[in-house]
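[Meeting: bench + compute handoff]

Bench side (C.D.) handed over the final construct sequence. Compute side (W.E.) agreed to return the predicted structure before the next meeting so the bench team could plan truncations. Sequence as handed over:
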Amino acid sequence: MLFANKEDLNTHLKGIVCFSESGVKVEDPTALRNSAIDGLAYNAVLNPSQEIRGLARFIIRCSALELGIVLSSIQGLYEARGRGECEGFTVPAINIRGMSYELSRAIFRTAEKMNAGAYLFEIAKSEIEYTRQMPAELTAVILSAAIKEGHKGPVFIQGDHFQVNAKRYAEDKEKEIGGLRELIQHAIKAGFYNIDIDTSTLVDLSFSTVEEQQRANYEVGVELTQYIRELEPDGVVISVGGEIGEVGKENSTREELCAYLDNFNKKLARSVPGAKGISKISIQTGTSHGGVPLPDGSIAEVNLDFATLEDLSKVSRESYGLAGAVQHGASTLPQNLFDKFPELETAEIHLATHFQNRIYESDHFPKEFREQIYTHLRGVFANENKAGMTDEQFIYKTRKKGFGEFKKEFWDLSPEIKNEIGAELEEDVAFLFDKLNIGNTLKLVETTVSPKAIPHTLADEIESA
């Protein structure tokens, strides 16, 4: 139900949440969880009025804080890991592309059942664009899910692959970096206190030395990290990630890792003495985002370089005090490989495409709606249908864009369908949490992370909406 005006919203929340421009008071937490939060989430995303969208988001964010749900940085946990105080698990970072409320709820339900605390929600720069989910909107959805499932404690939301476009950078450096700065500012205001800066696209292998190959990567990485430090709220140290190997390209080496980190740390120390550096490092080990679809739509096997992953994770921890290496493009790997990541002390693993596939391929997903989406994609994105590509390959590569093109239709699926698909997503989340060994990490998170409640204004939410 879309609220026509503020009076409609007030009626929806009467006796449940009392709100004004100066703040929010939750009067009936049970009623908020059982019914009212669903309508708030829906209007935070879809209401045509900027004022009502912003007001719904403000109420959600303030209500979450009242209920002990705090947007947080995972920095403390990663620093503890860099000091060798904890080991044996890999933090899953799950990209929220579509059916965002249902997937987020499934994650919180699983965490509650498994006593898990070490997990991240995330969205990449490219995903923000094609799913049409700006950071403030996604934050509202994730916090709504936290309220719905009775979560308490920190919530880690991450900006994934805040990436420099190498071609646009070459054409106009200031414009490209300016766009990233704007995104970073919006993300931090939305409570993204974990940000992965991806300047690996600027690595230039035409240079004869590794240091020169990595120069633009670490120089722009320092510039953006410095900008993040300037914007982070008092009492919050944003967890920043760096990257040395572009996903889908050449596998990373120890020499590259050291060249990047040595020079990154020196340059940051000269620019801002005492400033925190990065907390983890993304490397390339043979994967690609979404996997490589074969002509029949199945996914090609990946020859993942576990030796490189183990070695670079160890070096980054023991020599540089980082949490370890980060594995991207992993969600379509064979299921029997996932327990290798905690075994090799991989710090973090990014998971996106599998959950998207699970939604589209669910027996509960309406066939007519699926075909409507695919037909639309064949027409609107025909220019992406490359020569020699089968229809199965084209659909596999482009159906991620259906989440943005049909955002309202996804939200308007029946509660029965959403609950059935949500249950399937929960099964997959539980499998990954088990394999990555993050069950019973809640106490560890509580002892290493100190959530800081950051005040937020209605004006901020209306502006971001």
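W.E. noted at the follow-up: The mean pLDDT is 93. C.D. will use this when planning the next construct.
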